[in-house]
Amino acid sequence: MHRRIRLILAVALFSALAASAAAAQEPGADATWNSLKPDVFGERAIKEASPLVRLTAPIRAEDAAMVPIEVEVMMPAGDPRTVKKLTLIVDENPAPVAATFRFGGERHDVTLGTRLRVNSYSYVRAIAETSDGELHMAARYVKASGGCSAPALKDEEAALKNIGQMKLRLVTPGKADGPAKSGDATQASRVSQLQLMIRHPNYSGLQMDQVTRLYIPAKFVDSIEVKQGDELVFAMEGGISLSEDPAIQFSYEPTGKEVHVDAGDTDGRKFEGALKPAG
């Protein structure tokens, strides 16, 4: 009888622990965010599940080192506010703030896509700041692990050989890998999008050299500035959670002026050029 009671209690305890572990991997397990939020935004109020922000990300990532996300921030018709800033956060990453984008001009709508590293099951969050100072958030729970420590796709010599090479192209809205439209930025519509790609290993500092078995020092793109003439499209501050060979797809309002890109990494390298979308 006593043995049976002990067995029942053991099974109940095991079930409770299993349920607790499962719950920690489901949406609602946001204890990390509750402790992280004050460090990033202080005591500012954040409107969660805001209708102004839409975040698209896979529920289960195929590659934790390259998780595609897309963010849309749209002001309602007639709303005078503009989009000033966007912060991307991966709660459970060693450096949770993946990137911060500051937008120029009077942007009433913004779309932006990129690829992130996700180190363990985690919420991915997009927090937009509007011109009145309000913060609006959308969140998505992504099942992925090992993204920050995944081996680089290229060896260091090959990665550094082409470091800083850029490509800018006009893409079909909503289709990051779709064919480019004909023409350049001056022929694009208001909802046109550009995709910027920069060759860079974006080492996280958590990856191991497969030959020496030593950790590769962190080395990543930490700043990007895109302008049309003297007008700012966006300025980005990035961290280790951006994927290798960063790719950023973004909406813009073409003015007929040439698009300039200036970027830099944590080693002090500068990458720059005056680029036009490929036809």
UniProtKB/TrEMBL annotation:
The lineage of its organism: Bacteria, Pseudomonadati, Pseudomonadota, Alphaproteobacteria, Hyphomicrobiales. Gene3D superfamilies: Immunoglobulins, SoxY domain. Residues 259-279 are annotated as: Disordered. The keyword Signal applies. Keywords: Signal. Pfam families: SoxY, SoxZ. It comes from Ancylobacter koreensis. Residues 39-148 form the Ig-like SoxY domain. Residues 185-274 form the Sulphur oxidation protein SoxZ domain. Residues 259-273 have a biased composition (Basic and acidic residues). This is Quinoprotein dehydrogenase-associated SoxYZ-like carrier. Residues 1-24 form the signal peptide.
